[in-house]
Amino acid sequence: MLRGGWIVIFRKYLLRAVMVIIFIAAIAILYSNWRPGNDITDGRNNRKHNGIWLQHGWLGDDPWFIRNKKEKKISYFRNKDEIEKLATLLRSHDITDVFPHLCPTSVNGYIPDVDEQQTKRFMNEFKGFRVMPWVGGVLGVQAFPAKDEWRRNFTNSISRLFKMHSDFAGIHINIEPCPDDYRHFLTLLDEVRRVLPEGKILSVVAFPPSTVLHPFTDVHWGKEYYRQVAKRSDQIVVMMYDTSIRFDKVYQYIIAKWTREVLEWSMDSNILLGLPVYDDAGVGYHDPKVENLLNALPAIHAGLSSFNGLPINYQGISLYCEWEMNVEKWSIYEDRFQHKK
User: Fold this and answer.
1) 282, 268 in Cβ contact below 8 A?
2) Residue 140's CB: how many other CB atoms inside 10 A?
3) Are 102 and 57 in contact (CB under 8 A)?
């Protein structure tokens, strides 16, 4: 090939390389200037009715501690001073709704027993809170809503729990995964509603809307299913995490989008937006460097800012979870959401 031919080819590929570099640089600049979140620190989105998921030990009976080899922790959870300390901490952070773990059910649908004296002790210190035991399990492992007997035992267990402890504010149901359009879950909610005493809250853990970045219908719900769940529940607590996303701004964009969607779709059911504070590093579905309060709170603010005033069904946020909170995380919560003086 003549020298001139080589020069033409070289120039051709050089031009392509330059165009690729320019394109990449443009994308980098756009990403750098992209602001999907909204830093709001004046507390305008804090309605002071937030939630948090609590450990099993706060209500659990002796056999639970023995089965899980946690006997040494019984004295901690059943210490009146520790319960009072927890209540004071949560009260000072505008948390009113607490979900003490009572999972998983047995394969027959029976929810775990509580310790009678501990429950009385806990409820006495948590006066003024709405305490809603967190019940459910893994679909197909402990939870079988498609089975009539399982649903019957599950609802009877809930009924018995309220007869023993009428001061619980409601029940908090969490079944994972729960596929979009899963009609047996709706049947379960109808049956739980029938056994709940009048005035008690039916609270439901919900999955976020679908996204092309995580297109799995077993852990995402569509608009129509949200409406069906909302018709049957008083409160929906949405899990705004486990997205598998590895980029901060992409996560913020998705959370802002989800915030708008779930509030628009859930009608009169009160919404708590569940935010991640846990550090499960090394799992494919969660990166704690991305899914954390520093990224989630600006995203929530951005989603809420798209409304003309706070939606009437927006209650607040819920932290997952109490046992992963520390001084640093409470400080972020105070500065970026609560506006604690």
Assistant:
1) no
2) 10
3) no
- Reduced to 3 states, what is the DSSP secondary structure of residue 238? strand
Contact 154, 188 (CB under 8 A): yes
Q: Which two tokens stand for residue 193?
A: 């509603």
For residue 201, which of 232, 161, 240 has the smallest C-alpha distance? 232
**327 SS3 class:** helix
pLDDT of residue 282: 85
Spatial separation of the C-alpha atoms in residues 263 and 269, rounded to whole Å: 9
Mean pLDDT of 294-312: 97
Number of H helices and E strands in the chain, helices first, is 11, 9
Distances (CA, A) of 20 to 23, 25, 255, 285: 5, 8, 31, 32
**Strands lying side by side in the sheet with 201-206:** 130-131, 95-100, 50-54, 314-320, 270-276, 235-239, 201-206, 170-176, 134-138
| DSSP 8-class letter at 289 | T
Q: Is the dihedral of CA 49, 103, 300, 234 positive or negative?
A: negative
Predicted pLDDT of residue 49: 98
Give the pLDDT mean for 145-172. Answer: 98
Question: pLDDT by residue (tens digit) across 42-73?
Answer: 999 999 999 999 999 999 999 999 999 999 99
- Identity at 220, one-letter amino acid code: H
The SS3 of residue 54 is strand
Closest to 114 measured CA to CA, from 126, 124, 101: 101
Separation between Cα atoms, residue 329 and residue 327, nearest integer Å: 6
- Round to the nearest angstrom and report the end-to-end CA distance of the chain: 78
Q: Taking residues 4-8, what's their average pLDDT?
A: 62
pTM: 0.92
Place of tokens 């939606």: 311
Query: Residue 18's pLDDT is what?
Result: 65
pLDDT for the residue 31: 60
Share of the chain above pLDDT 70, in %: 90
